[in-house]
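Lecture notes, part 5. Sequence design as translation. It can be helpful to think of inverse folding as translation between two languages: the language of shapes and the language of residues. The source text, in structure tokens, appears below.
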């Protein structure tokens, strides 16, 4: 074998042959090999297993009835109220949209104080009210104590929402 401190030392074929024969002589006996023991044990357990008996009949299906589903009663409306209380503090983003337009970057860079941007919404047309980006209602602008507000004039149904997405 080579000495790790002298890696330039040449190894002859005789040294390899000696090392290989030495390794074969030191092969573990079958008694010392835990894998061989485990495989023999498994084979013995497999051959000793009795033949499986006929399968037991499956239990008969029966309706779930009231054991699984409890009937709804008038007093259970409070449970859904408690469920709603869990989500009441979740913040949402409300946006009122006057209208939209498309600009080029050149037009955007030409904007200055006092510039007017033309929107596609018409004067007097209802404003869109969006919650988290989804249209839910329309309304009109009102002024209350020198502050702007919006009065909801129409709640949008799910079918109307789909139609308005196309505009």
């Amino acid at each position: 074998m080579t000495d790790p401190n002298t890696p330039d030392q040449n190894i002859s074929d005789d040294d390899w042959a000696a090392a290989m024969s030495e390794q074969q002589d030191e092969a573990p006996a079958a008694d010392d090999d835990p894998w061989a023991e485990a495989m023999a044990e498994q084979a013995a357990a497999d051959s000793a297993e009795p033949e499986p008996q006929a399968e037991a009949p499956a239990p008969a299906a029966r309706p779930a009835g009231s054991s699984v589903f409890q009937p709804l009663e008038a007093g259970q409306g409070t449970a859904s109220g408690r469920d709603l209380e869990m989500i009441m503090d979740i913040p949402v983003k409300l946006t009122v949209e006057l209208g939209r337009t498309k600009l080029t970057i050149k037009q955007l860079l030409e904007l200055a104080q006092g510039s007017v941007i033309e929107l596609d919404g018409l004067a007097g047309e209802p404003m869109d009210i969006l919650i988290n980006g989804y249209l839910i209602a329309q309304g009109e602008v009102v002024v209350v104590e020198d502050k702007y507000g919006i009065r909801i004039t129409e709640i949008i149904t799910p079918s109307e929402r789909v139609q308005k997405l196309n505009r």
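The translated text above is only one of many valid answers, since several sequences can fold into similar shapes. The two ends are 83 Å apart (CA to CA).
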